[in-house]
Amino acid sequence: MKQSLFQSSMRRAPYVFVLPFIISVLVFYLYPIIATIVMSFQDVVPGETRFIGTANYQKMFSEDFSKALGNSFKYTAFTILILIPVPVILAVMLNTHRRRTNAAYRAVLFLPSLVSVVVAGTIFRLMFAYSPRAVINAVIVALGGRATDWVLGGAAQAMFLMVMIAVWRWTGVNIVYFLSGLQSIPSELYEAADMDGARPLRRLFSITLPLLKPTIIFVTTISIFGGFAMFEESFIFWQGQSPNNVGLTMVGLIYKKGFQTGSMGLASAIGIVLMVVIFIVSVIALRSFGFFKRES
Amino acid sequence: MRRFLVLILLITSVAGFNAFATDLTLWTFQELHANFYQSMVPVWNAANPAKQITLKPEVFPYDDLHNKLLVALQSGVGAPDIADIEVSKFANYLKGTIQLAPLNDLLDPIKDKFFQSRLALYEKGGKYYGIDFHVGMEVMYYNNEIMKEAGVDIDKIKTWYDYIKAGQQVVAKTGKPMCTLETTEHWSVYPLFSLAGSDVLDKNNKVILDNPTNVRVLQMLYDMVYKYKIAVATPGGFHHNEQYYGFMNDGGAASIWMPLWYMGRFTDYMPDLKGKMAIRPMPIFDGSVNGIKSSFLSTGMGGTGTAVTLQSKNIPLAKSFLVWVKGSKEGNIAIWQQLGFDPMRWDVWTDPAMREPNKFTRYFQNNDIFGMMVAVKNGLNTTVVSGNYPDVIDILKRNVSYQALVEQSKTPEQALKDAAAQLRK
């Protein structure tokens, strides 16, 4: 009797242990996603919410939407282009001489990502202000250039600002990811390569990078999510009102439509489209890494 | 027991806490408004001992307030008793089942004493959901020191032709621009649409942003920058930021056209211009520039429709206080004296209290600001702010001026047409 009770509780135990996780997934992921899908087919208005079919999806495609999508794509592309190669190189350089400083150094590298984006954005806004006495413009003027209007100057300046804040924030974090990845590479491989007379560059491309591939795939994937989900960096500079939408991102557009004009249905539809876009981009990226190929 | 109660009463009255007053929460985006409301509370309490209130105002940044309020009203939780809602956002709150309390029962008896066009801004289906501070008459602010240096008599500027000619003289003699044009907000272009007899929406809420009159107005602004060379883009993009205040305070430009409520920005943020600024009526469109002709002398701009939310637990009291503070004679006079706004009750305009000196009359060169306005008050154009208005203003702010005047990526006509096309979808 006791045996079977014990056995049945043994069978149930895993479910009980997983229950908190399942509940949080249901509450914080599944319910909101279903609610968003439902709302995207509705006109959400106090007291008179009703289904309107695909009207939101048809209404969504506008100049604002193309601008937002384009900006998000460009931002993601730039951040990946800078925030993968540069941290890899820096991590390799930091890893060549393993000293005890690494532990404390890693903590310091993480600091920018811990600073509130609001605070960082305010400081960046002051640094990049139009006045010739602002930090960045002062340096440019001292080097013989002319003060630039960074915040209101145009699309290129706007993209530069957003990418700049991202690079400042995430370089350290990516370095830490890659450092961890590097340290899982057995040093015997390097010793063997040394004995074969391999030069540093050869070592990098034949040993380091291939074995770092899982980490690179991971960082790329989260960078894709992070790039398309970017909101605060843009909000800090322009509060959603960037001239000519130079700073408008997809999430910024959802915020505008959902909270600034109260069109929750339309915002939900844009959110669903964003989800699909990120999914497609991630799958393409993973496939090009060979993630889905069976290990031979 | 009685001694205990007396003790409580003593303690609370000593602590300044009125145990019998009702708490009313109020959200606003402008600190000056919060100070005004707070200053009127003792007056209300003295006149209404049985209905005393303790006001708890909260000042939010502009966007924050409107977003939070919208979410609170849509979700049914968290809204304050009273909220300031700016006119260009008000239509967002009139969708579906309106979550604001109609003010008709208190407003109808006195409504004929108001400028009707200002009441109509916050009306839907015959019910008034908000009440404004002011008329917001558009006026021209001249830095008379610069104008005199250039040898221009501002009282001779009657039409936009005169203005442009004067501008060229100012630039030639002083090197300073005649005016600054907003490129990230709409206060340079939108008032002129209205002054020219046009608007961005017609009476049926159809988008008319790209009609021929508006195109000619925007073309005039473009010409002011590139052809006549009398205007520059506002530093910082709009007239409500520190960059502009500093620029103008240092004598950066000779004039600016903004509504009368902008006076407070001069007195509070541009102290060095005290005694140098003069307010005059707007130049008129008499057909001499770009063929734009209109009979209007000015227009009412901006506004804050303060409303009572249905989530309030004290709707009758909140409504009484609100309609008193903004709709009574004493409230309207206080609005002028404290905030420098042109009040909505026309029967107050001829009250002698409006001619008394205050911080605004001491700042500007005008002997009689109100007398000047009375002369213009029958020539005011009105604006449509319902339906799609928030989206229209949003796109006007963000795209049109910037594309036409700064980037020059589109001609004025193209910028307006593209913006209108997006809105018509």
Q: How large, in whole angstroms, is the Cα Rg of chain A? A: 24 Å
Question: What fraction, in percent, of the residue positions of chain B are helical?
Answer: 40-55%
Mean pLDDT of chain B: 91
The percentage of residues in β strands of chain B lies in 5-15%
How far apart the termini of chain A lie comes to 50 Å
The most extensive contact between chains is: A-B, 27 and 34 residues
Q: CATH H-level name of the domain at 62-122 and 149-288 in chain A... which superfamily?
A: MetI-like
Number of helices of chain B: 18
For the sheet with most strands of chain A, the description reads: 2 strands, antiparallel
Task: Classify the secondary structure makeup of chain B into a structural class.
Answer: alpha/beta
Number of domains of chain B: 2
Fill in the keyword field for this structure.
heterodimer; A: 296 residues; mainly alpha; MetI-like fold; two-stranded antiparallel sheet; 13 helices; 74% helix; flat; B: 425 residues; alpha/beta; D-Maltodextrin-Binding Protein, domain 2; 2 domains; four-stranded mixed sheet; three-stranded antiparallel sheet; 18 helices; 43% helix; globular
Overall description:
The complex is a heterodimer of chains A (296) and B (425). By secondary structure, chain A is an all-alpha fold. Chain A has a domain at 62-122 and 149-288: MetI-like fold. Chain A is 74% helix and 1% strand. Chain A contains 13 helices and two strands, in the order H-E-E-H-H-H-H-H-H-H-H-H-H-H-H. In chain A, strands 1-2 form a two-stranded antiparallel ribbon. In chain A, a hairpin with a 6-residue loop joins strand 1 (42-43) and strand 2. In chain A, helix 4 runs parallel beside helix 8 and helix 5 (101-114) runs antiparallel to helix 8 (155-183). The longest helix of chain A has 38 residues, at 2-39. The radius of gyration of chain A is 24 Å and the shape is flat. Chain A starts with a helix and ends in an 8-residue tail after the last helix. The mean pLDDT of chain A is 87. With 425 residues, chain B is α/β, with parallel strands linked by helices. Chain B has two domains: 20-133 and 302-363, Periplasmic binding protein-like II (D-Maltodextrin-Binding Protein, domain 2); 138-300 and 367-424, Periplasmic binding protein-like II (D-Maltodextrin-Binding Protein, domain 2). Helices cover 43% and strands 13% of the residues of chain B. Chain B contains 18 helices and 13 strands. Chain B has helices at residues 2-14, 31-47, 62-75, 87-90, 104-107, 116-120, 144-149, 160-174, 190-195, 212-226, 242-249, 263-269, 315-327, 329-339, 359-363, 369-376, 389-407, 412-424, and strands at residues 22-28, 53-59, 82-86, 123-124, 127-128, 138-143, 179-181, 231-233, 255-259, 277-281, 298-299, 304-308, 380-381. In chain B, the strands form five sheets. In chain B, strands 2-1-3-12 form a four-stranded mixed beta sheet. In chain B, helix 2 links the parallel strand 1 and strand 2. Chain B is globular, with a radius of gyration of 23 Å. The A-B interface holds A 44-49, 59, 62-64, 129-131, 152, 154, 239-245, 259-262, 264 and B 63, 66-67, 70-71, 73-74, 76, 92, 95-99, 183-184, 235-237, 243, 390-391, 394, 397-399, 402-403, 406-407, 409, 418, 422, 425.
